[in-house]
Amino acid sequence: MNADTFKRLMMPSHRRMYVLAFRLTGNAVDAEDVVQNVFMKLWEKRDKLSALESPEAYAMTLVRNESIDLVNNRRHDEVIDDVKAGEPDYDMASRLENHDRATKVLSIIDTLPEMQRRVVTLRDVEGCEMEEIEAATGQSPGNVRVLLSRGRMAVRKHFSNF
């Protein structure tokens, strides 16, 4: 795959990749770094991308994993710094708790039926508009709303069981 084909295939996903990375890292600079790293990984695997059913979904998975790794590594470094300083950081404790909740929610979303998972991910993780979701899934507006509602209810139900 040459550079032009790669750009045509992957650049339309850039905005969604950045939005997902930003939501998971909570930081614009980190989100840019994550997206850059993912594009480098995609470029290294460019010859295998055309064989994938959905290169965009693969890219989003890479962004998600890279973002979670970045946050986990940073969290680990902050805990070590706090232990070395001898002072607990209560703000960091709340950030750790929020990150744990987000990780649990993402793992619950991964267990949803395929179409619910796709709709919830597009809407609540990637921030897509309803019209974009309808176009991406081929579902009617009513079906998208039902899938989103059922998916969110399932997430709430399973999250309360944690």
Through-space gap between termini = 45 Å
What structural category characterises the helix and strand content? mainly alpha
Instruction: Identify low-pLDDT runs.
Output: none
Mean pLDDT over the residues: 83
Mind telling me the C-alpha Rg?
A: 18 Å
* Portion of residues within helices: over 70%
Report the β-strand fraction as a percent range. Answer: under 5%
Shape descriptor? globular
Biggest beta sheet attributes: none
Give the SSE string: HHHHHHHHH
Number of strands: 0
Assembly context of the chains = single chain
In words, what does this structure look like?
The structure is a single chain. With 162 residues, the protein is mainly α. The chain is built from 9 helices and no strands. It has helices at 3-10, 14-25, 28-44, 46-49, 55-85, 90-110, 114-125, 130-137, 141-160. Helix 6 packs across helix 9. The mean pLDDT is 83.
Short précis:
With 162 residues, the protein is mainly α. It has nine helices and no strands.
List keywords for this structure.
9 helices, mainly alpha
